[in-house]
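Module 6 notes. Inverse folding takes a fixed backbone as the condition and produces residue identities as the prediction. Think of it as a translation problem where the source language is geometry and the target language is the twenty amino acids. Below is one complete input and output pair. Work through it position by position during the lab.
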């Protein structure tokens, strides 16, 4: 092989190595700080949903019987309680409603949403998984006061 070809291969390898390093750095930055939303996308929000009709007496009765608080029973933030609303996002990111200070929690780890018959817990593609009663979940599943939710090293329960 000629020296010129060897030199060109060295530069090509060095270029590919830098592309790989920059790619890895971007993945780490995205995991730590989240994705950047362009200003044009942030301003173009979908129109608000049409106002909903007043809930029926059955819906009001079901809402009264739902648990209202989420309590951390084990972990660094043990004893912390939070009101449950329509949706509660859990993770390490600052845009989550419940921020867990745990190395095993993903940036956006899980979400608790209010369904027709109660609350559902959903894993958001976390690395270490979300466990309901020591079983890993992959689809939204009902979350009742009898259940224990484990996210990282943190245990959570709902209470009335």
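Target side of the pair, the amino acids:
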């Amino acid at each position: 092989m000629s020296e010129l070809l060897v030199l060109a291969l060295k530069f090509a390898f060095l270029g590919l190595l830098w592309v790989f390093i920059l790619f890895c750095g971007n993945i780490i930055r995205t995991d730590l700080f989240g994705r950047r939303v362009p200003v044009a996308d942030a301003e173009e929000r979908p129109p608000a949903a049409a106002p909903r009709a007043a809930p029926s007496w059955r819906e009001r009765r079901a809402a009264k019987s739902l648990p209202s608080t989420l309590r951390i029973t084990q972990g660094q933030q043990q004893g912390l309680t939070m009101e449950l609303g329509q949706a509660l996002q859990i993770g390490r990111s600052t845009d989550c409603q419940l921020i867990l200070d745990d190395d095993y929690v993903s940036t956006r780890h899980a979400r608790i949403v209010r369904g027709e018959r109660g609350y559902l817990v959903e894993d958001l593609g976390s690395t270490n998984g979300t466990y309901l009663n020591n079983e890993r979940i992959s689809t939204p599943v009902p979350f009742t006061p009898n259940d224990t939710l484990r996210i990282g090293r943190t245990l959570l329960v709902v209470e009335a």
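Reference fact for the lab report: Residues 55 and 106 are 36 Å apart (CA to CA).
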